[in-house]
Structures are given as C-alpha cells and as structure tokens.
Amino acid sequence: MPPDANPEWNEVFFFPLRLPPICDEIQLAILTGSKVLGTATLHLSQISSAGAELKEGTPGFLPCFGPSFLPFYGPRLDAARTPSTDTEVAYWGRVLLELSTHMGTPDGRQQDTINPEDVARVQCHLPRRQFGLCGVFYSATMVPAGPELLRFELSLGNYGDIGDVTCKPAASVTPHGCPLFDGNRYHYLPWYGDKPVAAVTSSWEDASHRWDALNLLRAMCRRLVSTHG
What keywords appear on the UniProt entry (predicted)? Predict the structure, then answer.
C-alpha cells in the first residue's frame, strides 16, 4: 500500500483445511505486484496437537496462532552486492496475524473485513517499550578465506541493520578483521583477548506477560530436574 510503510488491511481470509492435514506448512508471502519480497511459515505441528490416543490422555487442540506478530524474511535487494552474496537474508517487516480453526462445513466465503471492535480490542494490547540487546563475540572460526575484510552485525528487525535508514544508527557491528590461516585447513579472526561487543536498542510491543510465564515454567523444570536427578 504505497506510500504507507505501515499499512493496515484488517481483513480475514477463509480457506478449507482437512484434518489430519497432508502438508505441515502454511506459507505466507509479502508481494509487490507479482514479485515475492519476503515469506513466513507456520508449521501445523507447532500450532496444533492431535492429543493422546490413550484413554484419559492429554486432549489435543486445533490449529491456532496469535494474535501475534509474524516476521517476514527474504533476499536482500541490493544491486551493488556481488553474485556470491545474493543469498543474504533481509528482514522485510512483520504482520499482526491471528489464525483460528472452526469445525463445520465451509460457507463459501473467501474474504471479509474484521469487526472494528475486534481491531480495537487488539490495538489496546500493543503499547511499546524499549529493549536493549548486547552481544559479545568470543571467537570466529572456520570463516571463508580471502583478502576481504570481515565483520559481524547484530540486528533485530530494522534495528542495527547498517543498510537500513529508517532507524537510528547503533553500535551493532564488530570491527573489520582479516581472516588468518590456522595452519591446518581453516581460517579465523584474530580477536584473542579483545572480544568485540555489539549493542542494539529497539522498540517493540511489551509481551513480557508471555515471557514471564514461560521463564517461570522453565525455571520450575530445571529446579525439579536438579532436585530429583
């Protein structure tokens, strides 16, 4: 939707799905005309469960996802890059998406608009806050040989991407280094005692209520394993 960089479709699509499915993937794509910019994949095995077959087993659930943001990645479009780096992956944006499954006979609908009340209900849960990410690079071994200088980049979406001009610059890249031969068959970067550090400050929706529950469950599992191990 040019020239808007943050379009809002507020649309719902309907498609039939037979269970159990033959394929495990639902693939979504961002298109510009007929050209694919980025893709994202939902695995049905990760968003659904058949449940236990034994009597009084764990009940399953139908495919469901979100509402949550789904990031899209695709090849970086930069004519200045050499053919050897055409496979470099770039972040192309994200989509706020919800997927739900309902049993019954399809009514033939393929597309509709989302109720404004449902749109408002989701928007009130999207307040943003700042997050900081710091990465320490301890070693870089088995790097490609050649005269080109190498460096690593730490990024979250557009944040930290030195080729993106929509976000403020950040100390997200390591210093350039020339690979050295290890005397056997590989090359490495001579960082030795000076370990490079990269940092990125970004702004995202606050999903700490999900992280807190997951971190609590993982901490309980570690405690139970260490106690009864």
Answer: Membrane, Repeat, Transmembrane, Transmembrane helix
Band the pLDDT of 54: cuts 50, 70, 90: low
One domain, residues 114 and 51: yes
Name which of 128, 118, 99, 94 is nearest 6 in CA terms.
94
CA torsion angle 69 157 135 68 (round to 10): 0
- Residue 34, domain extent: 11-126
**Is 75 in contact with 90 (CB distance < 8 Å)?**
yes
Instruction: State the Cα–Cα distance between residues 178 and 147, nearest whole angstrom.
Output: 7
- Using one digit for the tens of pLDDT, what is the confidence trace for 61-91? 899 998 889 999 998 776 445 444 445 788 8
Residue 221 maps to a domain: yes
Beta bridge partners of 168: none
131, with CB counted inside 10 A (0-12, 13-18, 19+), is middle
- Same-domain check for residues 216 and 178: yes
- The neighbouring-strand residues paired with 128 are 205
pTM of the model: 0.75
